[in-house]
Protein 1
Amino acid sequence: MKDALPLTGGWTLRLPDSPLGGGRVPAQVPGCVHTDLLAAGLIPDPFLDDNEVGLSWIGRTDWRYDTELAPRTTGHERTDLVFDGLDTVAEIRVGSTVVGTTRNMHRGYRFDVTGLLAADAPTPLSVLFTSAYAEADAVREKLGDRPNSYPEPFHLLRKMACNFGWDWGPTLVTAGIWRQARVEHWSTARLARVTPQVTVEDGTGRVRLDLDLERTPGGEGRRLTVLARVGAARAAEAHAESTADGANAETTTAEARAETTADGAAASLTVEVPDPELWWPRGYGQQPLYDCEITLLDGDRELDRWTRRVGFRTVALDTGADEHGSAFTLVVNGEPVFARGVNWIPDDALVTRVTAERYRTRLRQAADAGVDLVRVWGGGIYESEDFYDACDELGLLVWQDFLFACAAYPEEQPLRGEVEAEARENVTRLAPHPSLVLWNGNNENLWAFRDWGWEGELAGDSWGEGYYLGLLPRVVAETDPTRPYWAGSPWSGSWDHHPNDPDHGTAHSWDVWNRLDHTEYRTQIPRFLAEFGFQAPPAYATLRRALSDTPLAPDSPGMLHHQKAGDGNGKLARGLAHHFNEAVDFDAWHYLTQVNQARAIATGIEHWRSHWPRCAGTVVWQLNDCWPVTSWAAIDGDGHLKPLYHELRRLYADRLLTVQPRDGGLVAAVVNQSAEPWTGHAVLRRIAVDGTVLAQERLPFGCAARAVATLPVPGSAAPAEGSAKELLVVEADGTRAFWFPARDKDFAYPVPRWDLSVATTGAGAEVTVTARTLVRDLLLQADRLAPGARTDTGLVTLLPGESATIAVHDWAADGSPEAAVEKALFCVNSAQKTIG
């Protein structure tokens, strides 16, 4: 049997003579230079103030990691040194022998070190990292430069692009042994690669297993046996926490087996599972997972074993032509899905700090917000197994980008070979996961070639098209034909249409954030919106932890440093000016920008969901942050939930009411993504600012499962266009929608008044606010009560006489809790200056 010995302890990091003065410090593996220097107290936290700037030298320095390998053992024919991830350009030495070099962060490496280990003493192991900038310079010298969106050379080597900074991330160019390292001893043969292809047809599940075998000289030509077993299905909760559908027991599907023999370097076998339990996205069914195991035998002697979990489901991408253009609809188990999505970036700029628990927390938050699709964006990494395991268990569909973003990528060597090796390895690695439903070639590069001036600048040089339209679809077709491939996002399906044509394929919408009012989202109905977003600062507690600015201001030094978007604050200001008067102070500005972010996303999602099935998905940019920053995220870099997060819970709920302008009049759209019809009566009330009901209508409706119904708003219930003194409220089965006919700065908000009570609970309090006037977008910022305090409620609009009870967790409500809560409560009525 193969023996694997992890290399996790005993590592040291050699310090450069300048600026750290030489010497060594303990090193963590997996880890990186930044985390090791932080642990040693040699550098300040790069996430605080502008410390990032003073640490730029780290990425331009060569580094060395050292440890010792245990003495040689007997009983095995072969010894391999294995690295699952090296960041990025490295030379590996065992004793005085260079056993290999690397130049790709996104793949693993295996080196034969048989005979290099001493028999009676440890053998030195060194990993020497060359600066990523030096490698990029060498590639530029050989191939010439290529255009990109940022003044950093991330496109000239296979490394996490956002290491070099982004419009939401710091420039922290890492180096290190960033994934597991180990020594493996084995004999005769091993399972070098296992690629499962899981299909369902005519009620039978099939797992085809394609195997690559590596043999020692003594094992060549030897007839070996391969056993494959797919065990009884177990619901996801048996592996982790419960799903939204409550699956919690084993199913009755019996295990299935297959056997074959192999005397060469490859083998294939298929396991059939009659009547498998299907894996579904959350909200559509359960997520049963099957244990899949392969054993490689030499007679009765076990040589190697591979185990994963698989799920049975079908996935297709409907791109058929229709009267609106061409569709882009994911179809799972024959069921068309409106994708309620979020974009995912690395959850920490120093990615080795992201644990399995942290992945699960963040993805559980996504699921709790109604999300059913997570797009892994192409400027980050292929995430760890922990990420995809959590998605399998939570029923979150995964759209996986290949790692190309916002740049022209050379297609010549040495990059082309690395790209193909990286693609084949990661397609194989992720193939078992039922959550993975789409491979996407790149982020914005096809669009950029057409619209960002690249074509003329490149003057015929390669830029990546051969990857996206040639190499990558071929790798997917050969390795993972059970899943669809799409060449890029945005992409219309061919050069016959503009790459970002909203009527064809996937679209990105950034005109709103960059230059337009968010009401302009209503002017288009894209077939699938894969990126759109609006910025807001992080939570107040996050700002106070990360910045020493006194006082805080939108343009104070720390705030500006932690705003990475070009003219980001200017765009925030212009976005506010469309709707609000000037904020009364910084706290009000902070609140209003968060309100405007939530409002912008709500405007888009409500409009696009109301046009299902023409529009088949929205993927918000973005779920998470990688450090404390003003950004498009719903969850900030310290893990605090912005108002946008809570708004997503409403927007992505199975049932949604929304008021939409259509053809010169208003309609109430009843959006039903649940599995059951939604029938009932909608109550429409035209209400004056003081709470007086001016008109009321009760309209019956019936909406089929996974469908949308629209109700024209009767003229009696419709507020006059531009009216500053009345609004429309629509309610049905506990859901509610508002329509304000005038902008906030033009609306006659009363001075807000409310009654407040605070009742302590075991680990927090319940805050009850009873409105005495109309109160628009009331928000309790719990982190102002205590940095770790949190609430389960976002923006709430109350009519006169209505109450809202807000649970606050992790807060010791002692002293004068009402006074503290008053200071943490905000609403639109009082946050903007009164004009005139």
Note: The first strand starts at residue 3 and ends at 6.
Protein 2
Amino acid sequence: MTLQFSNRAQQTTLISSTPSEDLLRQSELKPIDRQRELERISFSRSRQIMIDWDQVIASASPSTPYLVGTGIEYLRAELERLWGYPDGLKTDADVQRIGIFTLSVDPPLVIFGVPKSQRRYTVVLAPNNTVQLPPLPPAVTTMAQYTEFWANVARVSSRDDLYTEMSSVDLAPAIIYRQYRELVSLRSLGASLSASADKIAARELDAFLSAADIDALTASYLTMKSLETDIGLKLERLRDRARDLGYYLTLEKESIALPDGTKFELNAGEIYQPYLTLFRWQTVQYRRMLVRNDDWFSSSSWVLQIPYEVQHVQQISQYRKIIPDFDPWVEKERELAVAGFTVFRFVRLGEKYLTQQGEPIEQIVQRCELDVDFGNRCAVMIPVYEQGLVSGEVLARYLVIQRPRRGTQPIYLPRLYIEEDLLFSTHFHSVEVGELVESINLAPGEEREISIEKSTLAEQETRRTATSISDLNESDRIDLSTEMEREASVSNERTTTQSMSAKVGGSYGPVSGSAEGGSSSTETTRQFARDLQKVANKASRAVTRQTRQEVKTESSLKTSATTRQSTKITIRNINDGRTLNLLFFQLYNIYKLSLRLEGMTFTLLSGREIIAGTGIVLPEIYPLHQLPEVLSRMDLAGFPIRPNDSLLPGASADALDAAAREAYQKLVVAALTRTLQEYNVGTSDSSESVDIDFSGVDPHAPAAQQIVALTRALNAIQYMGSPVMPPGQAAGESQTLVVGSPGLYLDAFVGVRPGTEPYSESMRQLELERVHAEVRDIHARAAYSEALAHRLYRVDPGNVVSGQSQSLRSLVLTFEKTPLLGEWSLYIADAFVTDFPITSGDLVQRIAFATDQTWLDQSAVDIARIVHKELKQELTFLI
């Protein structure tokens, strides 16, 4: 792997280096694989299928399948289901059979019973247009009369005298108290370390200290003092979070003055819950009265002070002491059991709510419906969770419901979701050189010891708000996933990345009935990838800041951030005419981001509460190939709607109902297909994360055929595993993340301009030529000495030759004696050059070359030798 250093502004590579193979082999280190996922965050996202309900239901329209009904259809469907007709009454014989469940008729009241149940329903009728009541059961014997009867129902009520009660068991006080005790136990340790630091520092300062000793003592002193400061910050932050959750945690003893002059004491370390109340007190005031006394002899007057009491009323905040209980649900169970209730506490496993014995919540609610006495003695405790990317599910509170009743009235229209299983990961890409942090300049020939120390102090006033119990459990880790959760919780993006699903939700007064606290999104996966990238960029900047800062706390509202760097080096500038510039750059780690779709399922919310008043609708999870079951469960039977007569004028009720259901299913399939196409490969502005063959889905075919074709396509779905690109980004482009590194990069640059005057530069050039000449002289002397050594070791050299070049193509040899005739070979530094003949006994011989011989340059000194091919006589000389 090549480690790249690049300049982000110029987009050019400054340095490219490959780790030494010897180092890798000796240390058994391997370069990191760029495909390795360093950070993996798996989560789910609920994508809602947007069904245009204005095309399905209208108050008056000739084209919609359904029209708005009277509002009691849900009860009619519920009673018919309990009577044994889940698809509704169809014939006159069915109507005649249900007459046995009419318990009492007292116009305008009709009391119905349910088989195998003690529950009674009272139906109140309203007169029709003729100011007469319609036929009443058991006189109702035909479907027409039965339909007319329900058309005149004004309201329905239960005969039970006891009603459902709801409350909650909050777990926040226990968490607040536990964290407070942990911090208090550490505070004594921090105080001891702080006091010991002062004593040690005073003992060490009785003599002069070196710079290194001062730095070491300062670092140790700050480390010992910082624990007490950090504990104080965490205590104040815990108090602030407790207030945001509706509780008042006192760190020191406080006195609150009341309007009447008395004081209310709040003890340190205790948890209180504030509430508003009317405070009444009375004061004694005086009214002045003038009294005169006249008689026969004299007249006098005086002033009397007449007391009277004044009543005062003022609304003030009082504090109720909360005694933390680490398992408050046990106390609540005991309290309900003493009151005569049978308590069922549930836990959530997936989408199911089960008791400790494994009984589902549906079974308990069904028993409450069939046995009214059991229902009046029943109490259920439903857990409410909060979900985060990092912390997972946190149990926040229990929803306590006494005398639960099964929800029959729809609270909203059916909602269909695509549950996306997503994987967000990061891959290391490279290291980039960032901004210039520090520079040092050395003059020519300068040598000095450099100590670099950079310290930055910043104070910022902050206010942090906790919104959930999961904030009390957050850690102080510095990683990407934690920061992504923090940024997502305060992000203004259209998506909420903390949402694991939108499968359940709702509220009942001030008590939340949400079982996961999630929310859904209607934006495409590509849009979600863009928003998630924005959140990741914000988180990376937070990680960069925390990486480069050490946070110290001074007070509850101010944060002191200090950055310190210290380096000592000895540097000498060996350049005589140029400055040496040392530049320190900030390093950044570059990561590639990847968001991939790993799976999809259907989640259906039927719109009917499992327990009336809670707003909790149990989700129904289906794999993609169970699309027919999903659409069958989305039936609108029992909703306050009725089929549109304009679809088939004059048709029977069954035919009209079938036509409305056909049109409704086509609209649902069209909405589902439109949403799925935004995932498909090749579709415009698609995430291209799956491959679905929609060719068999004919929008003009009957709804049943469309459902079969779409189900077949979903059975063959293929997940591509390729990253999802945000809108406007091509498939080949990569999403990058820049995270600051605590390291620095040092580079040296020689100055561009000379560091001396022009005449000094000329003198320096002459000095360089002189030095070069001396070097050549040394080389020549060494070569001459080597030649003498070669000559001296021969017993009888026989002859002496010298060589002189006349040009790059001509060499003249001068012999001391007559040379041997024959073929000779010429070698330069043991390298063969050419063969040449000597045919005469002349002492001067010439060798001509066809090309230029660079070794004949006079600026170089080479050792040459000639060798006779037959007699092997060898003569050495200098060129």
Note: The longest helix spans residues 758-792.
